[in-house]
Amino acid sequence: MKNIKFLSALVVLFSAFTFTSCDNEPIDSALNPDDFGGGGNANASFKADFNGATWTANSSQAIVSGNLIQIAGVKSDGSTFGFLIEASTTGTYPANENLLAFNPAGSEYGYWATNINNPTENTGSITITSIDTVNKKISGTFSFKGYWSNADETGVLPIDFTNGVFTNVPYINMEETGDTFFAKVNGTEFVDVDILTTEIGVGSQDFISIAAQNSALDAITVSVRSDQGVGTYPITGNVATDVVQAIYDFNDANYLAVSGTVTIQEKTATHIKGTFSFVTNGATPFTISEGSFDVDY
Fold first, then answer.
1. Which residues contact 234 (CB under 8 A, 6 or more apart)?
2. Coil, strand, or helix at residue 112?
3. In the chain, N or C terminus with fewer CB closer than 10 Å?
4. Cα–Cα distance between 147 and 49 in angstroms, integer?
């Protein structure tokens, strides 16, 4: 999803989380969306208590789309809160089933509301109390226990984030980002309601990952190694060596692309455009055709 920039486009509101995994694990940004944007608004507020002090954002922004709500707040020192909630209405949502995180200033890692050693642990919640569709403002509360996201770094104690409140945070709709995505699955158009663009670290490699989700929560994800330029790249199904990868999520099952191509037509430091097609694994493989994306990241 397009990064909304604030303060004359000098600072990205939410620094991209780095997702680390095994070198041979396929990339799926529909499961790991990580890139948030932001904008300033003098009437908005965003704060939380932790480590004996109150953290207050200098700017905040949200995006409300078909199935997802993204909210982010940033402080002038570069520390950030970022939330990605599978929701479209007011209500209370469990922290461990969504993405709630705090990134300290200057760190590529953060405190996530997920305990990787006990993923079902109740780590807190976020409540959307109001979505003002006339003035495009969103408000709510949150509290969660955050676990350090670098699994290789031991001994880092979790932090309790309490009394979290965000009020009148401005939001935009997905359509206003200008991002586009198209594909057909077995000849039928995949009608997306959400588009997410993420930057993911896998081992020593960084990927730009573009995911689209439909109303049934199925998703198509295309990932390109960030050091690749304009050109056409093959998909072989070897996630350890392929510089491009793709996944189709259907009915909560992941189908990895084992053949196909991704063509990068345009690429800058903030924008990528391309086409793709692939065939998945599985007893009955899926054919993804006529794929295209044109997104900011």
1. 242, 244, 260, 261
2. strand
3. C
4. 16
Query: What is the pTM assigned to this prediction?
Result: 0.64
Statement: residue 47 has pLDDT above 80:
yes
Place of tokens 């990927």: 207
Q: How far apart are CA 173 and CA 134, in angstroms?
A: 12
Gap between the Cα atoms of 182 and 162, Å rounded = 41
The values of phi and psi at residue 128, to 5°, are -90, 110
Distance of CA 225 to the CA centre of its chain: 17
Is there a contact between 65 and 194 (Cβ–Cβ < 8 Å)?
Answer: yes
pLDDT (tens digit, 9 = 90+) per residue, 85-98? 888 899 999 999 88
* Phi/psi-derived region of residue 241, left when phi > 0, alpha when psi is between -120 and 50, beta in every other case: alpha
* Residue 205 to residue 228: CA distance in whole angstroms: 11
Torsion of CA 19, 24, 29, 35, to 10 degrees: 30
Residue 66 burial (CB count, 10 A): 16
Nearest to 271 by CA among 294, 246, 243: 294
